[in-house]
Write a structure and sequence with these properties.
Bound molecules: flavin-adenine dinucleotide
CATH superfamily of the largest domain: FAD/NAD(P)-binding domain
Strand content: 15-25%
Oligomer: single chain
Strand order of the largest sheet: 4-3-2-8-19
Helix content: 25-40%
Structural class: alpha/beta
């Protein structure tokens, strides 16, 4: 069954695809502008999310994990500190403002920030449809001009139920997807860390014995996974396998941190591709394959304590790679190679976790029809305007905005929360400008 919302009165100004923090921030910007505007000139916006309810990396909501960004970089403050969608207002409404201040931290618990996101998402719930997996975006042409897109979504629990909505612009913010090493095969006992919490809960509830777990990776998620498994399975050996000599600490020093300032996006955007590349290379250590120093020190302390006690459960298999992983019904046999000597060790493990990172989803295959309208640079990367609007062929006046998959044009903040509030404001302003003057498409997006 297909439901159509494509009549002239039901055309959206913007449809957001995905409803994580990025499009949530945009929904708030739209909502606040609409509420403040006396002439009713707010945008007609909708947001489609495949999950049945709001959820931000639920599989990694480890009880004591903290945010890696200041709470002041919430959904609105950097755009408008007077908004009532701030984290501080959330705290006030939850009755924890004073208690939070007494913690003397800028970095709330991840579960607390998740609750803040849920609180904010509920307040703009009228703009969102959950259980709406976007399966296609098709251009609609009139007089040779692509003026709209027809966005088709499907309910994951009732795949035969399709809904088509027409819009003047889409904002694609489909986030990150798990990255696996080539040839990796997932099973009941082999997972990506994005599934950590439900998988561990299942093992514990079913009283499945876990005597050994192997974790591949050396980034923040890998270290958190090692620590979590070590705590949840107190009788198990936890083997941390990675090619480095040791975990690298995240660089959150004050000058390096400026790479996440809104101004840094301007500087990055204007730079040549060589300078862009070198900035991303210099500052990768702020985000990629690095671990918070506190966690590194805590794991090291645990290892030493175990050495003293003669019960070594936490094992660092450094300068090593997994050469083979063979799943069996009740576990997985993992072959680990120590790279300096080539010596191999076979581990019979109950669990293998690939904590091998994430990659942006970007405009994926399911959006193929609009991907064809987008212009690309010499390196086959999407050309994206400073206002986050993808550059398109001249006959396309419908807009495609991107959040997340723009590290090559807007820098390291693209996949992070640091500039979410500001970026949402920029996209909102661009949507308004294009609605009042569709011809702006030609100048802004190709300027
Ligand atoms: C465990 C973890 C912790 C992190 N912690 C931090 C942190 O502390 N600070 C920081 O700055 N960054 C952090 N990050 C980085 C992270 O990318 C951002 O926090 C944030 O999730 C980006 O928001 P987003 O909305 O762009 O993407 P996402 O949060 O990934 O949201 C994308 C949404 O799109 C939905 N979706 C995808 N495809 C479709 C489709 N076809 N149809 C409908 N819906 C779809 C997904 O279900 C998802 O809800 C963390 C990442 C992880 C994995």
């Amino acid at each position: 069954m297909t439901t159509l919302h494509t009549g002239p009165d039901s055309i959206y100004d913007v449809l957001g695809i995905g409803f994580g923090p990025s499009n949530l921030a945009l929904a708030i910007a739209v909502h606040e502008h609409g509420a403040a505007s006396s002439s009713g000139d707010g945008l007609r916006a909708g947001f489609l999310e495949r999950q049945p309810r709001f959820g931000w990396h639920r599989g990694m909501l480890i009880d004591d994990a903290t945010m890696q960004v200041s709470f002041l970089k919430d959904l609105v403050t950097m755009r408008d500190p007077t908004s009532d969608f701030t984290f501080l207002n959330y705290l006030r409404e939850r009755g924890r403002l004073v208690d939070f201040l007494n913690q003397k931290t800028l970095f709330p618990l991840r579960i607390e920030f998740h609750d803040y996101f849920e609180w904010a998402a509920a307040r703009v719930g009228h703009l969102v449809e959950y259980a709406a997996d976007v399966v296609s975006v098709k251009p609609v042409t009139e007089d040779g001009e692509v003026r709209w897109f027809d966005v088709t979504s499907r309910d994951p629990d009732a795949p035969e139920r399709l809904t088509v909505r027409r819009t003047r612009a889409v904002c694609v913010a489909t986030g990150l997807e798990p990255h696996l090493p080539p040839g990796a095969e997932l099973s009941n006992r082999v997972w990506h860390n994005s599934e950590l919490l439900p998988r561990v809960d299942h093992l514990l509830r079913s009283e499945t014995p876990v005597r050994r777990a192997v974790v591949l990776g050396a980034g923040q998620s890998a270290a958190e996974t090692v620590d979590y498994l070590h705590r949840r399975f107190p009788g198990a050996e936890i083997c941390s396998v990675f090619a480095k000599y040791g975990y690298t600490p995240a660089d959150d020093s004050p000058f390096a941190n400026r790479i996440f300032d809104p101004e840094a996006v301007d500087v990055f955007y204007a730079a040549s591709s060589e300078v862009k590349q070198s900035l991303n290379d210099y500052h990768r250590g702020t985000n990629y394959s690095v671990v918070d120093m506190d966690l590194i020190e805590s794991l090291s302390r645990t290892m030493y304590q175990e050495k003293v006690q003669g019960t070594q459960r936490l094992r660092m298999m450094n300068v090593s790679r997994i050469r083979e992983a063979a799943s069996r019904a009740d576990g997985v046999r993992v072959t680990v190679e120590f790279l300096p000597t080539g010596e191999r060790e076979t581990l019979d493990a109950d669990v293998l976790v690939f904590a091998t990172g994430y990659q942006p989803r970007g405009i994926g295959d399911h959006l193929g029809d609009i991907a064809k309208l987008c212009l690309r640079d010499e390196e086959d990367q999407l050309r994206v305007g400073r206002d986050h609007r993808v550059e398109t062929a001249p006959n396309v006046t419908a807009g495609i905005y991107l959040q997340g998959a723009t590290e090559h044009t807007h820098g390291l903040t693209s996949t992070l929360l640091s500039t979410t509030a500001v970026r949402a404001g920029e996209i909102h302003a661009s949507l308004l400008a294009h609605r009042s003057s569709p011809a702006a498409t030609a100048t802004t997006s190709r300027g």
